[in-house]
Amino acid sequence: MAFLTNPNLAHLFVVAGVTLLLLTNINPKSTLLKVGMVLCLIAAGIEFVYLKVNPWAFLVVALSPLPFFIAVRQARAHNPLFLISILMLTISSIFLFVDQDNRPVVINGPGGFVSMLCGSLIWIATDRIRNAESARLSNDPDSVVGLIGEAQTDIEAHSAGSVLVEGEIWQARSKKTIPAGSTVRVLRQDGFWLTVRKVEELTEK
After folding, report:
1. Same domain (yes/no): 65, 158
2. What are phi and psi of 46, to 5 degrees?
3. Which domain holds residue 185?
4. Partner of 47 for a Cys bridge, out of 10, 113, 158, 166, CB 3.0 to 4.6 A?
5. Residues 37 and 109 in one domain
6. What dihedral do alpha carbons 75, 77, 82, 84 form, nearest 10°?
7. Are residues 11 and 60 in the same domain?
8. Which of 139, 168, 184 finishes a domain?
9. For residue 198, what are the contacts with CB-CB under 8 A and spacing of at least 6?
10. Listed residues 90, 115, 139: the one ending a domain
11. Considering the entire predicted model, what is its pTM?
């Protein structure tokens, strides 16, 4: 059971799990990504039981998806929050596991290469998906206006949320609060953002 005390293997599980979590957020329809994410995070959790962890590095790793999730909800194609999220994950994960003297045990191994590889994968995947979305929008900018969808999250008034329209997840906003699960109609499209309204409100007027 030596693999349970191998910090380089544990580091691989952590970085791969978080990377797949981020990729799942920008491609939520991929079952393979979700299964891989769950398996890696479970394996990483088991490793945490047997290895000593730097709590500060763990906190930064745990928070690393946050800037990414914020960036995905924004309309900017090259958002610096993507890079911040990648740096938080790749750098802090190297210092995640320590020895009895609290010295990093991954930094001298292949951990740096694994971190850079996963960081590059996130950046390339994000850039390609954003470029594909931009091309699709430029070819048919009014493709979703008037369509019916479903709110995936609560959409607070003048705030952000997400909706599912024609099998695709979009960032959405509304003048009025819309609970998750509500049926919505797309009123307007601005880049990667949709302005929506509850179908019930439309029928009442």
Report:
1. no
2. -65, -40
3. 148-204
4. 10
5. yes
6. -90
7. yes
8. 139
9. 174, 176, 178, 182, 183, 184
10. 139
11. 0.61
